[in-house]
Each structure stands twice: as structure tokens, then as C-alpha cells.
Amino acid sequence: MTTVIDSKAADHPAEAGDATWWRQATVYQIYPRSFADANGDGIGDLSGITSRVPYLKRLGVDAVWLSPFYPSALADGGYDVDDYRDVDPKIGTLDDFDEMVAALHAAGIKLIVDIVPNHSSNRHVWFQQALAAGKGSPERDRYIFRDGLGENGELPPADWTAMFGGPAWTQVDDGQWYLHLFAEEQPDFNWQNRDVRDDFLTTLRFWSDRGVDGFRVDVAHGCAKDLPDVLPSQAALDATPTTDGQHPLWDRNEVHDIYREWREVLNEYDPPRIAVAEAWVASAERRARYASPDELGQAFNFDLLEADFDAGQFLEIVSTNLAEAKIAGSSTTWVFSNHDVVRHATRYGLPPLNGRDVKQGADWLLSGGTTPELDIVTGLRRARAASLFMLGLPGSAYLYQGEELGLGEVADIPADQHQDPAFFHNPGVDPGRDGCRVPLPWTRSGDSFGFGSAEAHLPQPSWFARLSVEAQDDDPASTLNLYRRALALRDELQTAESLEWLESESADVLHFRRPNGWEVVTNFGTEPIALPEGEVLISSGDLGDGMLPGETTVWLKN
Questions:
Q1: Which one-letter DSSP state was computed for residue 262?
Q2: Rg (CA), the chain
Q3: Which partner for 402 in 93, 242, 407, 461 could form a disulfide, CB atoms 3.0-4.6 Å apart?
Q4: Up-side HSE of residue 234: CA atoms within 13 Å toward CB?
Q5: Cα separation, 216 vs 236, whole angstroms
Q6: Residue pLDDT, tens place only, 164-187
């Protein structure tokens, strides 16, 4: 018995210049401050990215997703934006941006940029105007201000806790309080205000006119809010379901009015600009709304990112998301690592979650990387197998810088060198996200392993040397060359967005076929199995004589 899952209306993959290029693209996320430093100040910059375009072209990616590069005080790694239509002077200029776009496009690589609509920084000109204009002013209405409770308004409007810890309301000099669901330096916009809506439409056009091919929408599920005169308590918020679009803060049905308006702007361009939602929602059905053709068009599926290295979990996640993508008329997305989570080469070397709703690797990070014990070899072997499995799936593959090197999480960053606000707001509870944001190693030696000519802004461990680009470049068995070969084959073999699950001899084995006879087999167990028939195209590890070892993926052609 086989099961066929089809998630695409079209029968053939998109050509490079097609308006549907994104449907099965390989997208490489760059965290700009940690990718490459061209001017030697310890911070990655746009010129550094431009200098590494040949590396990206050889890697074989279709697009780059650029995390925030806007002017920012870095209260949240650049997600506190001072100006949505400029470049942070610490990492470049608009001219540098244009040069980067030209270099990427000349190499056949598209560009997706982060946009942060839920909140600005507290240094944004609008927020400064809101503080100066005072209570009840049009300027203040662009954000969410409230009078406080208590006899003199000395208490916050509600006892809400921010995502990074601490209160979600902060008082200003005239006594009012403003909402910030994240850091204090990130006041939430009021999306019921027309000025806010129009300004973001202007921003979409500004970057689209400069050649940007798409947008990754940060906290897409948070923009629409419905706050009654008497605000609910944190306990009441926690008890309110997020499944029906009526939660006061998250994934409200009205948020889709915003993105339908965005789609009208994105469709002004030829080809239409794409968008992908970061939407942490209660179900795949809710996520599909963001991915509909008349809204953003695609939404991140984080399910594999939160799963154990387990055949049953992978099977359910892939089947469910392909089915939901078909309903939405979109393609699904696959991701294992990004700038917010512990790298998957480390996660897979730690004990499985087994369904526990906790951040994988948090306890290990809080221990400084000592407890529980990390199995580095197993973690990398599983990461290679999982990545090769994912790259065989229909849909878009999102890679995070450094995963192609097999980089693990850096656990022993000294407390005084951390940068993530989550680390400081929840000491001893939240380890922060700096461990996956450590600058990349390009060479075996040097003050920053080739990242730049000066010490990197986050400390790099000595073991980065053996995982550097230089160390792996000429090694045919390296993780870097595994990714290069896999992406080249993926481009060559890509076909219609469907797969057929095939029977396997073990519950620990997943085996699927794409429409052109391309087959992917992953052994999630530890015992070898008989290798299915077919020409071996690539494998994540050495194959035994006619056997597929445990924790290994192979691509076959029949």
C-alpha cells in the first residue's frame, strides 16, 4: 500500500524567472551581523555579504533571507527597528545594499528581507513624537497607550508578562503606559491606525523598488489586537484559546485584512513579490490562512524544528503540512534551524523531548553545555540525515547560515558577553539565543576565523576551526560538500510538488518517491536495513555493503 500526497496545483517546477520560483526554492538565512565582516570592526556587514556571494552561488541556494539590517540599538538583535527604510550605519549604507542586491541577482540568487510590523524600536521617530505629543494625541494613537490602574495611575493597565520576561507595560513621564509584548525597547504598533497601515505599504514599495524579491514577516500573527477598556489578567489571557481567531493579542481573524492589503501592493510588481509569515498559531489550518494566495502566500512550518529525530513524528508532520498546503494553494516550508533556536546538530545530540513542551536544549545551555551530556557525533550524523531527508521533500527548504558546516550551538558564552535580552530578563531561566548567532568560521585560524580582521562581536570557540569553510572546502566527506552536492541534485531532480510514501521493512524507516523516480530513504533507527533497489545518488553517511546504516539518509533514482 502506498500513499500519494500532492500539494501543488501545477505539474512542473518553476523556472528561475517564474513568478512561482519560491514554491520549491532553497532559501539561506543570513544573520547579517554574524555572516561576514568586511570593514574589520567585529560586526558583519552588507559588504561582507557581497564578498561572499560566490560562496552562496557555489553552495547552490536559490534565495537569501536577510534578517534585520535596519538602524537599531540592538535591544533585540535588530528586531527593534529605528527606521524601516534605511540601513544601520554599523553594517552599511543604502548604496551597499544596492550593490549587494546587484551581486546576488547577477549570481541568480533572489533576496528576501525581514520586515517587523508588530513593533518598532523606542527610538523610532514616531515613538519619540508620541512621547512628546502627549496623551490623546494622533501621534500617540500610532502605538498602544493606556492609563494605569491605582489611585493615581501608578499601576500598569494589566499584569501582563512580556515574551522576554518582565512586565509588558512601561510607564512614560506623563503617567501613561505603553504596551510592548517583547522588550521594553519595542513598543507595539496600533494597527487600527491608518497611518501605520499606510506607512508599511510605503515600506513594502520602497524595498521592492530596490529589487527585493520578497519579505519574511516577523510576528505576523501579532499585529491585530482587540483590547477592551478593562483588560484581562495574565491568567485570563493564558486561559483564552487561540484556536478561533478571538484571542485579544494573537492570531486574530482581523489580521488577515492587513495582509490582503499587503498582497495588493506585492502584486503591483512583475513578478509579484513574495512573502512568508512567521506565525506561531494553534493549528496548521490557522497557519494556512496566512499562506493563502490573496495574503502572504506562504507561512513557516516550524513543526520539524520542534520534533525529535523520530520517524513517526516526521511522517505525521510531513503528511499534515503537505495536505494543509494543498488546501491553502501554497507550498509548505521546512526548517530545522534559525536565529531563534538551538542548532539542530546540537539538538539531535541531546535526549529527545518525547512530547515535552519545552525549548529543546535550554537546560543544556543553562548548564554551560555540560548537562545532559551532548553526543556530538550522533548529533551531527542525525543532522546530516535529517537535512538530506528535508531537501528531498516538495516545498521550500529554509537553511540557516552555518548549518551547511555542521555547526553546533555555542554553550559557554560568558555572561558579560551575551547580547540577547531574553538572557538578561530571565536570568537562570532563559539561556537566550546568542549561541546560534555566533559569527561563522571561514578559515582555520585568525582572530575571528576569517569572519573579519578583528575579534568577532560574539566569542567563537576554538572548535570552530575544524568546522570552518577552509577546513571543509576540499574534503569530499564534509558536511559542506554534502550540502553542495545535495542542493545541486535537488535543483536537477526537482519535480511536481508531490510525494508517494512507500512501504518499508521497519517503523524506523521512511521511504518516499517523487514523481520522476527520485526516492528518499531515511533510517531513523540505529540498526542497518537492506538498501532498496536503485542508483545511489547521494547519502548522508557511508553505506554498508548493500545496507543502509542507522541514522542515515540516501537518495536513489529508479
A1: H
A2: 23
A3: 407
A4: 13
A5: 31
A6: 889 999 999 999 999 999 999 999
